[in-house]
Structures are given as structure tokens and as C-alpha cells.
Design brief:
It is built from seven helices and eight strands; from the N terminus they run E-H-E-H-E-H-E-H-E-E-H-E-H-E-H. It has about 250 residues and is an alpha/beta fold. Strands 1-2-3-4-5-6-7-8 form an eight-stranded parallel barrel, surrounded by five helices. Helix 5 links the parallel strand 6 and strand 7. The chain is globular. The protein starts with 20 loop residues before the first strand and ends with a helix.
């Protein structure tokens, strides 16, 4: 999985209003997946952000391959996010802040993807404290929160984007977004769907739009295959469909 700082002047907005785009919540290590990393710098790619996971976080020291990959994405205007695992609220606050600081110091990330955040209202104070601190560490940080279940509406006030769905295609077909999401624009929400066969790609994109997603990641890989550790086998097809739009 994997990454960066503020995009260069003239770079496209990371999440454009009303525009469905792609999020990459993970990729193999740049040493093992150089082609995938290079593909993320393709001009015109409808990519809202990519996540850099060096070693389930920033690692113990700067990784030269990740430094180079993050730099190339930065030059291409891609927004790279560091991965912070909240562990359902059990991760000590100090550890999270220390990891965030390493990401900023070493890789110059533009924000963070907070995974395994609490979903219930009781977890709001903890996540509010964390997001407030992250914004203090980096002005303008783009924050994406992923939750253990359907999040309480209060979390929408804490992050730029919420991952509302992360799971298998067999369940996504019948999934319904919470009613409160209708009060917010689509660019606030992310859907991550694995185990999606190519022949259902157009259907999945229609569902994403109907259910109010602004950023999606759709992959044919399964959890057993490490769903988010590589780009989908039909990556070019996803890019072309989102780039040209899908009729409702």
C-alpha cells in the first residue's frame, strides 16, 4: 500500500466537486510493483489520491524506494496519503501522532487515510482529537476516515471524506447508503469494493453514483488475494469508464 505533500501549482484538485474519481488505498512496495507505481503518474488519470503504506505505517526509517515513488507522484500532482491504523480506537494517541510526523518528515504526505476508526458516536471525541492534531501538524491536510461499520453522521464533521463502504461486491449490490449522507455532496464519500468481476464493472459504477460516492476503488481481487495490495486486473477499463463517464 502507499504516500505525499501539497500538490504543485497548477495541479488538478484532488477531489473535484461532482466528479467521480479513483482512490488507491494500497499498492505493492515500489520495489516489487514498479509498473503499478509508474502507472499512477499517467497524465489525465482521474486519481483523487493514493495511500502509501511502507510497513503498516511509515516504517522505522525512510525507505528509499518509497521516497522515490512519492516524489514522482508529487511531481505528477497526485495527492498521497499516509496510512494510520486507529485499531478500532485502541491505538494510543501518541503512537498515531508519531507515525503521522514520520510520514510528514520523510515522505511529505498531503494527508492521511485513517483506517479502522470507530463508527459509534461514543468514538467521536477520540477521532476529533486526532483529526484536529493532524490538521495542526499539516495545514490543509486531506483526511479520509475508514470505519468499522456504518459511521455515525457526526464523523462527517471531522474528515474531508468518509469510507462508507469497504467490502465485497456480493454485498455491495444490495447495500444502501445511510439516509444522512443525502445532506452532503458525493465528493465527501468513498466506496471500496473488492471481488468485482469485470462484467459487472458498469453496474458497480452506476451503483456508486446512485449511492452518492465521489471516490471509488473497484477491484477484481479478493480479500484472500490482498484486495488492496495491487491495482485491479482491469485497471485500464476502470480508468476509461470513469474518464468518459457512465450513463445512468
Amino acid at each position: 500500500m502507499s504516500y505525499l505533500t501539497a500538490p504543485p501549482a497548477g495541479a488538478p484538485a484532488a477531489v473535484e466537486a461532482g466528479t467521480l474519481g479513483l482512490g488507491v488505498p494500497g499498492c505493492g512496495h515500489p520495489l516489487l510493483a514498479p509498473g503499478e507505481w509508474a502507472g499512477l503518474t499517467r497524465p489525465g488519470l482521474p486519481l483523487h489520491w493514493a495511500v502509501l503504506d511502507v510497513a503498516q505505517g511509515p516504517g522505522a526509517r525512510p525507505d528509499p524506494y518509497c521516497l522515490a515513488a512519492a516524489a514522482r507522484l508529487r511531481v505528477a500532482g497526485v495527492r498521497v496519503l499516509g496510512l494510520l491504523d486507529v485499531r478500532h480506537g485502541a491505538r494510543p494517541f501518541g503512537e498515531l501522532v508519531a507515525d503521522a510526523s514520520r510520514y510528514l518528515d520523510w515522505y511529505g504526505v498531503a494527508g492521511f487515510h485513517l483506517v479502522r476508526c470507530p463508527s459509534r458516536r461514543t468514538g467521536l471525541p477520540q477521532i476529533q482529537r486526532l483529526t484536529t492534531t493532524l490538521r495542526a501538524l499539516r495545514a490543509g491536510a486531506h483526511l479520509v476516515t475508514g470505519h468499522s461499520g456504518t459511521p455515525d453522521a457526526g464523523y462527517a464533521d471531522l474528515a474531508d471524506q468518509l469510507v462508507l463502504y469497504r467490502g465485497a461486491w456480493v454485498d455491495y449490490r444490495w447495500w444502501q447508503a445511510p439516509e444522512w449522507t443525502a445532506e452532503h455532496p458525493p465528493e465527501r464519500f468513498v466506496h471500496l469494493v473488492h471481488g468485482l468481476p469485470r462484467l459487472h464493472l458498469a453496474q458497480a459504477l452506476r451503483i456508486a453514483r446512485w449511492q452518492g460516492a465521489g471516490t471509488v476503488c473497484l477491484t477484481d481481487r479478493t480479500e484472500q488475494e490482498g484486495a488492496w495490495e495491487a491495482l485491479p486486473g482491469y485497471w485500464d477499463d476502470v480508468v476509461s469508464r470513469i474518464g468518459t463517464g457512465v450513463s445512468e
